[in-house]
Structure formats: structure tokens, C-alpha cells
Amino acid sequence: MNAIDELFEAASAARxxxxxxxxxxxxxxxxxxxxxxxxxxANVENASYPVGACAETGAIAAMIVAGERDIAEILIVGxxxxxxxxxxACRQRIIEFAGxxxxxxxxxxxxxxxxxxxxxxxxxxxxxxxxxxxxxQ
Length: 137
Ligand code: THU
Known about the structure:
alpha+beta; 5-stranded mixed sheet; 137 residues; Cytidine Deaminase, domain 2; globular
């Protein structure tokens, strides 16, 4: 299986376990880290709607718990006709752990539909390097 197919299968398997009874929009995410390992997440909704978490959030948490800090690429799989691109908050979560050229692959149930860099999805980001430069002032 090629690297993208592997990421797609991992995200799709996570998506099958999504807890999305309110939106009925199941999402899965899979990160390939700098080491080549894969970390997965699914959205976890809540009766108190704003408390719900996106799939990307879970995948990032799994990577951090495993002791890694670098996202090489992340694939997100949703459903429907529209592209399930990461929400603004998740773009910010991704840039915390990714260089601006890291790939964000957006998939539907049949496979990858589009590919972006995180820098294109979140230009002029307030990321860790800006935060560090403020601290040096
Ligand atoms: N959602 C994600 O998990 N990731 C995305 O990139 C977009 C949206 C979830 C949040 C909510 O549980 C559901 O999709 C509908 O918005």
C-alpha cells in the first residue's frame, strides 16, 4: 500500500468510530509524523455542542502522547459533496506542530480530493516562531 493510501485507510478507520450523533457528520484524521508513524483521531461530539472536539484535535493529542512533535502530513476524511477542510481552530492546532509546507490532504469516502499546504490554509499564521520572537523582544 502506498503512503497516501495508508494514511487514507487509517483516517477512514478512525472515522468509523467517530461519535457524531448531533451533526451526523463523521470525520476521521490521520497524521504522518516526522518518524513516519501514523496517529489517528475522530470527532467526538457532546450534548453541550461547543464542548465537542474535531478529528484533528484527537490525532494531534495521540501524536503528542506518543512523544512526537512534528506533523509531516495530515489527512482528513469527511463525507458529502463539499470538501471537509479543517476548521480555523484546527488550522491553528496543526501549525503549532507543522512547518508551513506540511501537506493537508482532504478526502471523501472514495479517496483524496484535494491537497493543500498548511501555509496556504493559514497564511501569516500566529505560530510558535512568531510567539518565540515576541518573547525575544
Ligand atoms: N469536524 C471535524 O472533526 N474536523 C473538521 O475538519 C471539520 C469539522 C467536525 C466537528 C463536528 O463534530 C462535525 O465535524 C460537524 O461540524
